[in-house]
Design a protein that fits this description.
Helix 1 crosses helix 2 and helix 1 crosses helix 5. The radius of gyration is 19 Å and the shape is globular. It has a three-stranded parallel sheet, sandwiched between helices. Strands 1-2 form a two-stranded parallel sheet. It starts with a helix and ends with a helix. The chain has two domains: 141 residues, Rossmann fold (3-Layer(aba) Sandwich); 31 residues. The longest helix has 29 residues. The mean pLDDT is 82. Strand 1, helix 2 and strand 2 form a beta-alpha-beta unit. The chain is mostly helical. The protein contains seven helices and five strands; from the N terminus they run H-E-H-E-H-E-H-E-E-H-H-H.
């Protein structure tokens, strides 16, 4: 069976979680432009986890949804940092074999899985409270990748970025008007 990366990613994760099926609740957070039925199809056909334990949604604020869970499994995404800063265990799942920079390179602090079996091992590391499961959540590690975690500095950096984006957009619009 030929699967696209997105399908392989979801199917692999569902397979990697099957041994925990009596102990877990899963939310698949899709993008707003994706259809929930697509994921429902994958769940019906490839999951041994009871369907009522799996929620598919693009609704709600990510920071509120993540609070309901202990573990965050993701592909390459900045949401991994947000989940880690919220104190959640994070697992990076690499379904494509693509070479990616740290911390997503399979050699860094974040738990890394590229097969359903390795995903199961990562979850067991978390359940058994192994030290490697906590490395990515350490303040110094997160600050290495994202900068200061002090709210004032983070907000200031975000504000500066937004101002730069707005200025670039305004300059672009002005240049368009001038060139007409």
């Amino acid at each position: 069976m030929h699967q696209h990366h997105r399908e392989k990613y979801i199917v692999d994760i569902l397979q990697g979680l099957r041994s925990f099926k009596d102990k877990i609740e899963i939310t698949i957070r899709n993008k707003p432009n994706e259809v929930d039925e697509y994921y429902s199809y994958l769940i019906r056909h490839y999951s041994s986890i009871p369907h009522e334990q799996i929620n598919v949604s693009s609704e709600g604020d990510f920071s509120e949804i993540i609070n309901d869970y202990d573990i965050f499994i993701s592909t390459y995404s900045t949401a991994v940092f947000e989940a880690a800063m919220s104190g959640k265990y994070c697992i990076f799942y690499q379904a494509t074999g693509m070479k990616i920079q740290p911390p997503f390179d399979g050699k860094s602090e974040i738990l890394y899985a590229d097969t359903p079996q390795r995903l199961e091992e990562c979850i067991n590391d978390i359940v058994n409270d192994r030290d490697n499961a906590k490395q990515f959540n350490q303040k110094d590690v997160l600050e290495y990748y994202v900068g200061s975690l002090e709210k004032e500095k983070v907000y200031s950096a975000i504000e500066a970025s937004l101002k730069n984006i707005l200025l670039e957009k305004m300059n672009s619009q002005l240049n368009e008007r001038v060139s007409r």
